[in-house]
Amino acid sequence: MELVDILRWTASISGMIAALMVALNAGAKITGWGFILFCGSSIVWVTSSLLDGNNPLAVQNVVLLGINIFGVYRYLWLKPKERAPAAN
Predict the structure, then answer these.
(1) Domains of the chain by residue range
(2) Which pTM does this prediction carry?
């Protein structure tokens, strides 16, 4: 197995685990850690995409990295009373 394949599998599996953590809605800490895992997944996707010459996938994951950093900020950085109330 080549390095690019290992990176792809790592990014795929970590992305699936992160999606599960966010979808569980098990509290701000677990959701925040899910976003941290998404950040790691995006970084690995960007790396493997650039090694493979797949620029559209790299650009997509740079954008997703920015969105995931916002998720980390929202769920782990902000204090609870600074968060906007969730719409029901």
Answers:
(1) 3-79
(2) 0.86
